[in-house]
Amino acid sequence: MSDSRTTAELGGMNLDVFRRYAGISLPRHVSYPMPTWWHDVDAADAGAMLHDAADQAPARDVSLYLHVPFCETLCRYCACTRVVLPRKTAGSRERVERYLAAVRGEIGRLGHMFGDGRSLGQVHWGGGSPTYLDAEQVDQVHRTVFEAFHMAPDAEIAMEVDPRRVTFEKLVALRRAGVNRVSLGVQDFNDRVQEHVRRIQPFEMIRDVVDGCRKLEFDSVNFDLIYGMPFQTVDTIRETVETTIGLSPDRIAFYHYAQIPEKIAVQRGMDYTKLPDSETKLRMFLTGLSMFEAAGYVFIGLDHFARPDEQLARSVADDSVQRNFQGMTTGGGLHLLGVGASSISHLQDVGFLQNVKGVEGYLTRMERDETPIERGKRFSPDDLIRQAVMHQLYCLAEVRPETIERRFNIDFGEYFERELTILDELQRDGLVTLGDDGIIKVTKPLGRVLIRNVGAVFDAYLDPDAYRKGEREYFSANA
Ligand SMILES: C[S@@+](CC[C@H](N)C(=O)[O-])C[C@H]1O[C@@H](n2cnc3c(N)ncnc32)[C@H](O)[C@@H]1O
Ligand code: SF4
Q1: Closest residue to atom 21 of ligand 1, CA basis
Q2: Which of 175, 202, 166 is nearest to 187 (CA)?
Q3: Buried (b) or exposed (e) across 326-348, using 16+ Cβ within 10 A?
Q4: How far is the CA of 149 from the centre of ligand 1 (A)?
């Protein structure tokens, strides 16, 4: 039975429909095809894919993802690929230096293939915790990058920054080393939540880091927030969002807590009796959505917000926005070259490649002068068509058949006959609208919060009914 009071509270959203579709396990399609369908590749396959990408004419520009797996301590929610290595551990400095030597070696190898005749448009430092490194180590890696690639004059050099591990002096040194954008792991401002997830960072600490970034004129400051963790309530989320808006970041990633304790041991320490249920999580999300929009932020994709004049919001207008394992970013169309343990490369029109996940395995391969790549997926013609549809769906919240038809020389209605029949059903339930011009629009808020159900319709690797009954547990942070 529908609950009209609740429905009104949820901006007219039909809770019965939400209940029917929500909570089933579906991919977030950070990549298409999902990593679940990637397979082992040997050195010859990996080399051939890299060559195919490097030999494309005209040459595409590139971006680099640099993975630093180390963290000083472990946060209880963390689903990232990381290694806890307290600095006081004997031999930790040598271990990190050995890793950085391998990273520099890999940058050199990639520069050899992709360095000439194209620009490096973006560098993204992720982890783990890039701020585990000191600024000198970052600078040293940058020098290798600048030697191997032609840096575009307006290149974005972004770093994930753990507010507990930077001082103003370190920010100064990072800025001097070339970093011009930062993403702060804020997660939640509530003391009880911070204590439970073992990540204590008082408001004053975050405020000082933000003030420091502003003083040093970083081009953009992003906040990562997570909702749906134990001890979070709609009220605590409202306070966290209010505090966030008060600090005025340029972008916000408002992540749903990805909970996979069967794979991620540290998450087993969470108090699951204090976990919000799926309707409470929906309210949390809608609270954030309405507050960020009221404060002037533009809602982008599944879970990102940006100031209208910020590069990410502008990239939606010129369609250079993209979704990858770092979240929503600009720089669509560039080859993404992943460096370091577990890193993923997206070679446009060719395929995905992923390095060995474990640090030791990665080091062994690099030190033996072997490829660090262990799995990947070469795109089929059908993968590329569906990838373009997923891109429009998740980045722009609509699918424009005409652009797909023009790019791939297909008849959209014929090619996606089965999918369009299912979309009729989703239209009746209010998740999408199918316009006379053929444009498929995802509704807001219902379709946007259930966008994975819409995405599942176009995923050829899933059961055709997956959009309404789910399949299995999916997680996509390079896992
Ligand atoms: C590599 S981590 C962040 C970098 C840095 N180590 C830090 O913690 O500040 C990137 C982001 O992933 C998000 N994240 C990690 N585990 C998550 C989970 N289980 N569910 C949702 N988001 C998660 C967090 O918001 C985090 O800031
Ligand atoms: S959230 Fe960041 S600091 Fe915490 S364990 Fe994960 S990667 Fe490390």
Answers
A1: 257
A2: 202
A3: bbbbbbbebbbbbbbbbbbbbbb
A4: 29
Q: Within 10 Å of residue 298's Cβ, how many Cβ atoms?
A: 19
Could you give the C-alpha distances from 471 to 25, 26, 474, in angstroms and in order? 6, 7, 9
Alpha helices in 58-149 (DSSP H): 92-114, 135-148
In 205-326, which ranges are E strands?
A: 220-227, 251-256, 298-300, 304-306, 322-324
- Which token pair is 393? 């769906």
d(C-alpha 115, C-alpha 405), whole Å: 34
The CATH superfamily assigned to 57-347 is tm_1862 like domain (3.80.30.20)
> Which-ligand-closest: CA of 73?
2
Residue with the two structure tokens 């999580």 = 281
Amino acid at position 218, single letter: F
State pLDDT tens for residues 216-251: 999 999 999 999 999 999 999 999 999 999 999 999
- State what percent of residues in the chain have pLDDT above 90: 81
Ligand 2 centroid – CA 475 distance (Å):
17
Amino acid type, 72: E
Place of tokens 């062994």: 364
Residue 367 CB neighbours (<10 A): 12
72, 74, 81, 82: residue to mutate for ligand 2 pocket, most atoms within 8 A of CB: 82
Lining ligand 1 with CB less than 6 A are 71, 77-80, 126-127, 129, 160, 162, 185, 187, 224, 226, 255, 257-258
**What is the torsion angle, in degrees rounded to the nearest 10, for the CA atoms of residue 237, residue 297, residue 455 and residue 82?**
-60
**Cβ–Cβ under 8 Å, residues 452 and 397:** no
Taking only the tens place, the pLDDT of each residue in 303-320 is 999 999 998 888 888 878
Average pLDDT, the chain: 92
285 and 255 in contact (C-beta within 8 Å)?
no
Nearest partner of 219 among 188, 195, 250, judged by Cα: 250
Pocket test for ligand 1, best of 160, 161, 251 (most atoms within 8 A of CB): 160
Three-state DSSP class for residue 257: coil
CA distance 193 to 232: 6
Strand, helix or coil at 382? helix
CA distances from 373 to 43, 47, 98, 344 (A): 7, 9, 18, 9
Per residue in 77-92, pLDDT (tens digit) is: 999 999 999 999 999 9
CA 467–ligand 1 middle distance (angstroms): 27
- Which residue from 357, 359, 358, 333 is spatially nearest to 346, judged by alpha carbons? 333
The closest residue, in CA terms, to atom 6 on ligand 2 is 78
435 CA distance to ligand 2 middle (Å): 44
